[in-house]
Amino acid sequence: MRPLNAIFGASSRRRCDPAPSRWAYRLNRLWLTPLFRAALLRGVPVLVLALLVGQALSDPATLARLRAEAAALREAVAMRPEFAVRELAIEGATEETVADIAEVLALDFPVSSLDLDLEALRQAVEGLDAVASARLRVVAGGQLRVLVAARRPALLWRRADGLELLDAEGRRIMAVTARAEHPDLWLVAGEGADAAAPEALSLMRAARPLAARLRGLERIGTRRWDVVLTDGQRILLPETGALAALERAIALDEARGLFAGPVAALDLRDPARTVLRLRPPPEPGDPALPARDYPERAINSGEDA
Q: CA torsion angle for 115, 119, 124, 125 (degrees, to 10)?
């Protein structure tokens, strides 16, 4: 008996299965994964491009040529007129400080604003003694504007090598040649007076009742103050509690006219004992004794000075 396939003339080949193969199914599932698709579409081109760029930059000649082209491009942009800075304007400083600022900036105009390191220039300006703070900016019209907050003089400090201006915190401002240049400022002297400037200012304010006879303050041994009056009279203040001791001395003077008499010095270094150094009347033709040679006399609140 013949098979039906032979009877009807059908092909002896097996009919193909329409389902995908196992590998086709796995590849299709992998393609549907977002991470795989992103890595294939974006990661592979980026990797190829990075390899090509890295290979090009590994050549020293190519790298040098690219650097030269970049420098030339930047130079061409920097030299455009809209980036040119042609002048310097300084506000808030004295004439001497203006000259010092111009010297420390050392700019050769015209200069491109792209070549200016404003932060470094600001630090250079603030490095000057007379400058507390500074702000720099380039404004329209090609101007570099420097806004300065200057230190305000509060004291004159007499040193062995001359006079210097100090601000309220004891920072140096500048040297001066004569006391008469700043007659409105209080005078301090002695080593370490700058470090104790805030205390000196408070003592000077408290000593206003003695202003007619007040010459200044002298720092003794970098530890304490002497109030120096006219005719060489002194108030020796303690290391601690100097302000209270000075107020006590002013009260004694107001109550008894202490410094109108033959007083060379009022020693308040010992809070429990107030000592007067008296000035004896000089003999005719004899020089006055120095303050350290005057005799001492202890007084209490109940004794007449």
A: 110
Q: Which fold has domain 82-150?
A: Ubiquitin-like (UB roll) (3.10.20)
DSSP calls for 93-148: --HHHHHHHHHHH---SSEEGGG--HHHHHHHHHTSTTEEEEEEEEETTTEEEEEE
Q: What is the pLDDT of residues 130-170, one digit of tens each?
A: 999 999 998 888 889 999 999 999 999 999 889 999 999 99
As a CATH number, domain 155-299 is: 3.40.50.11690
Q: What is the pLDDT of residues 225-263, one digit of tens each?
A: 999 998 889 999 999 999 999 999 999 889 888 888 888
Task: Identify the pLDDT of residue 89.
Answer: 92
Q: Domain segments of the chain: what residues?
A: 82-150, 155-299
Q: Specify the pTM.
A: 0.64
